[in-house]
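Incident log, structure service

09:12 report received: a user says their structure output differs between two submissions of the same chain.
09:20 pulled the input from the user's history:
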Amino acid sequence: MRLTRKTFGAAFAGLALVLSVGACSGGASGADGGTVEVNFGYIPDFNGTSLLAIAEDQGLWEKHGIDATTSSFTNGPLQVQALGTGDLDFGYIGPGAFWLPASGQAKIVALNTLGRADRVVAQPGIESVEDLAGKTVAVPEGTSGDMILTLALQEAGMTKDDVELVPMEPPAIVSALSSGQVDAAGFWYPALATVKEQVPDLVELAQNTDFEETIAFPTAFVAGNDVVADDAEKVDAVLKVLREAMDYRADHLDETIALTADFNGLEAADVEADAANVDVLDAQEADALTQDGTTDTWLTGMQEYFVDAGQLPEAVDPAEFYLGDQFVQAGE
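09:34 re-ran on a clean worker, output below:
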């Protein structure tokens, strides 16, 4: 197994991207007898990494003739940007970034999990979303943290204009909340567990389950438009890897937690706490959700949210950006 690293430092206006080890192998053959090279982005948490950790450990890249380079990013929008420039072929996004493929900037190739980790949190003494009026609220823009904050404000009859919004990257939010530099944040676990070590009385004002009757929080894997248009073999090979990894994860959750911790250099207990906030999907469940129209319902509802939030000009047919049929066919 050959391990590959790749650096994108200059590509994103000085934003530092932490890079990780890639899982690859020589000697494997794709459909045409050659090796398919794939650049795959991820976020170093359970949702964003577990399938890649499984693919490396179980030799799935090699099995399907893929030479994969994996690179760590802090959020989904940066990965979509990298897909657009050709620096990545595939990446991972949380629900807050689904407006990007909906706006034509990438294609969703596979659903992954259903998130339960997002929260609106506040410093002790703030007891409701309404109490956030005029307060400093940190948020990583274009993420599920942004999404949960917007939904919570809407439910309270408020908008972002009612708070002092402070856009921040996730590591900065951990520091700002822990030190009391901001009053609140739209954020997620497991990073919030770190904050609670410093602020044990941190108040949770809203969470994903508060909105589950009207909107879902799926996570997904995405591909660049050019990859989808020009390299069907590469897409099919990657989908086969993801499907097998999804089934392994569903059947071996404890082992997956350990593999993910090792992949990211994290404590297994932290990854276990992270995994407790998601519902994993196996390939057959993802197939069923796609074929019975559930995913279309989710994606339509999410687009309506993004239109209302001003991130998307109009909703489109989910088939324009979700390759559900191709995902199902990869399992046949």
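09:41 both user submissions now match this output. Likely a transient worker issue. Closing.
09:42 reviewer note: Residues 86 and 226 are 8 Å apart (CA to CA). The longest strand covers residues 107-115.
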